[in-house]
């Protein structure tokens, strides 16, 4: 797992029990996100996406956390092996984080919070589903990086937006006991840029690992279903 030193912005790789406490960012991708290649070529500070990395590190440092993880730059996506490992590990990385900062770039103060929150793009994306469920400690931030609340405090409004039970949002229910069909329903109206990611973004929620085969399109979801069938007797999967 490649982490960012929040003090100087340098990368360091950690394995297994060596992984220290870290903050993690959840967000939706926008223009000019900073990639691992950008950092290696030292052109990252001139891109708009650098502000999210900078603020993640700044907040983490203020909370006494020395390391941070941001998906845009902490994964070398030119390495298929590294990308596969990262996507198969993603849910656990969010779950094991000390704190998760969910940045809602389209949440402003111009509309009352309870009206504006359901309209945020963050709730429409496939990858952010596991990023909502995994972390025990998740705070929502608006466009100006003002904290708007902890997910445990916003249980009722989040349930209304996502259909996810409050007990699950608060980490009080074991995901393995939740019916396959119920978990699938949480993702039903979410979107991903690549077709395959509609399956890959659910791997962690079903505790499944599969190779990534970009280019297989809808076959990825079939492979996901086949793996679920191998690991559970829950027949509700056939509803999907």
Estimate nothing, just give the exact number of structural domains: 2
Unreliable parts: none
Given helix and strand content, the structural type is alpha/beta
H/I helix tally: 11
Q: Which outline best applies?
A: globular
Q: SSE order, as H and E?
A: EEEHHEHHEHHEEHHHHH
State the distance separating the first and last CA atoms. Answer: 33 Å
* Record field, number of beta strands: 7
Hey, roughly how much beta strand do the residues contain? 5-15%
Mean pLDDT: 96
The major beta sheet can be summarized as: 7 strands, mixed
Side by side, the strands of the main sheet go 2-1-4-3-5-6-7
Relative helix content = 25-40%
Q: Measured on Cα atoms, how large is the radius of gyration? A: 18 Å
Describe, in short, the structure shown.
The protein has 240 residues and is of the alpha/beta class.
Strand and helix layout:
Elements: E1 2-5, E2 11-13, E3 23-26, H1 36-40, H2 50-62, E4 67-69, H3 71-74, H4 80-95, E5 99-103, H5 113-116, H6 127-133, E6 138-141, E7 147-150, H7 155-162, H8 166-169, H9 180-187, H10 197-200, H11 219-231
Parallel strand pairs: 3-4, 3-5, 5-6
Antiparallel strand pairs: 1-2, 1-4, 6-7
Structure description:
- By secondary structure, the protein is of the alpha/beta class.
- It folds into two domains: 172 residues, no CATH class; 67 residues, no CATH class.
- 36% of the residues lie in helices and 11% in strands.
- The chain has a seven-stranded mixed sheet with strand order 2-1-4-3-5-6-7, sandwiched between helices.
- The longest helix is centred in the middle third of the chain and has 16 residues.
């Amino acid at each position: 797992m490649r982490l960012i030193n929040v003090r100087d912005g340098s990368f360091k790789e950690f394995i297994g029990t060596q992984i220290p406490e870290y903050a993690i960012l959840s967000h939706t991708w926008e223009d000019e996100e900073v990639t691992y290649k950008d950092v290696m070529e030292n052109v990252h500070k001139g891109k708009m996406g650098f502000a999210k990395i900078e603020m993640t590190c700044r907040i983490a440092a203020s909370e006494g956390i020395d390391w941070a993880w941001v998906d845009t730059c902490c994964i070398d996506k030119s390495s298929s092996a590294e990308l596969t490992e990262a996507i198969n590990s993603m849910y656990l990385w969010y779950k094991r984080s000390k704190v998760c900062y969910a940045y809602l770039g389209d949440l402003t103060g111009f509309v009352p919070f309870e009206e504006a929150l359901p309209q945020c793009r963050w709730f429409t994306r496939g990858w952010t589903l596991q990023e909502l469920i995994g972390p025990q400690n998740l705070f929502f931030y608006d466009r100006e990086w003002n904290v708007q609340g902890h997910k445990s405090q916003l249980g009722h409004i989040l349930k209304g937006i996502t259909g996810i039970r409050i007990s699950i949002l608060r980490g009080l229910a074991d995901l393995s006991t939740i019916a396959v069909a119920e978990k699938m329903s949480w993702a039903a109206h979410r979107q991903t840029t690549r077709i395959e990611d509609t399956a890959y973004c659910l791997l962690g929620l079903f505790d499944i690992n599969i190779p990534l085969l970009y280019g297989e399109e809808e076959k990825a979801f079939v492979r996901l279903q086949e793996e679920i069938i191998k690991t559970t007797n829950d027949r509700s999967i056939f509803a999907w």
